[in-house]
């Protein structure tokens, strides 16, 4: 049996975790920590936070009425062949770059392959290097809810291509949103979620992944009726 190499694509949840709103923080509150009167060690914490922060999944219902909630997504869709498409060079030149359908098709042609149905496509923008620095990662240090953010994302035609032509299971990205920072209509969310395609945001360590040849597992906290959830995302190399 071939033992796969495992790459963790998930950020830890702590005081550095970035949420869409600068007013939101991950809370990890100690309830007990130390030796009990009986002499044994015991620790327990209460945690709280938005569904949409850190490495997490956007369920289709997030931007599409009547579509799947976190707990309704078939388990088969959480596991699929991974395809990483990098636009890090373009994003380095233009922070608001959006990957297009033409970019994806050019990548397929260059690699001599076609993204398979049920795949989990991961968009690498290089933005992971800014994780932990909210100003760099979000493109603003303003705490205003309507602040204009700046970071790369996915164009509408790319979302339509992946959802309707390639029929992928999920689409992930190493930024705070599937849509680029300045978006006000979140059309990429609307397209993907409207096709019952879940999204993964704030995916870590995409620079460590090859373009193909691995399985991706994206397992969210199974929140009933959830619009999203913290998610452990991993890649299993040599496990196709």
Provide an overview of this structure.
- The chain has 240 residues and is an alpha/beta fold.
- Helix content is 17%, strand content 28%.
- The protein has 5 helices and 12 strands.
- The chain has helices at residues 88-93, 101-111, 134-138, 156-165, 187-194; strands spanning 5-8, 27-35, 41-48, 56-58, 79-86, 98-99, 120-124, 153-154, 170-173, 198-201, 214-220, 228-237.
- It has a 7-stranded mixed beta barrel with strand order 4-10-9-7-5-11-12.
Observed structural traits:
single chain, 240 residues, alpha/beta, seven-stranded mixed beta barrel, 5 helices, 12 strands, 28% strand
Q: What gross morphology would you assign?
A: globular
The share of residues in helices is 10-25%
> What low-confidence regions span 5 or more consecutive residues with pLDDT below 50?
none
Q: For the record, give the distance between the C-alpha atoms at the N and C termini, rounded to a whole number.
A: 13 Å
Side-by-side strand order of the widest sheet = 4-10-9-7-5-11-12
Indicate the proportion of strand residues: 25-35%
Concise summary:
The protein is α/β, with parallel strands linked by helices. It is built from five helices and twelve strands.
Please outline the helices and strands.
Blueprint: E1 5-8, E2 27-35, E3 41-48, E4 56-58, E5 79-86, H1 88-93, E6 98-99, H2 101-111, E7 120-124, H3 134-138, E8 153-154, H4 156-165, E9 170-173, H5 187-194, E10 198-201, E11 214-220, E12 228-237
Parallel strand pairs: 5-7, 6-8, 7-9, 9-10
Antiparallel strand pairs: 1-12, 2-3, 4-10, 4-12, 5-11, 11-12
Helix pairs in contact: 2-4, 4-5
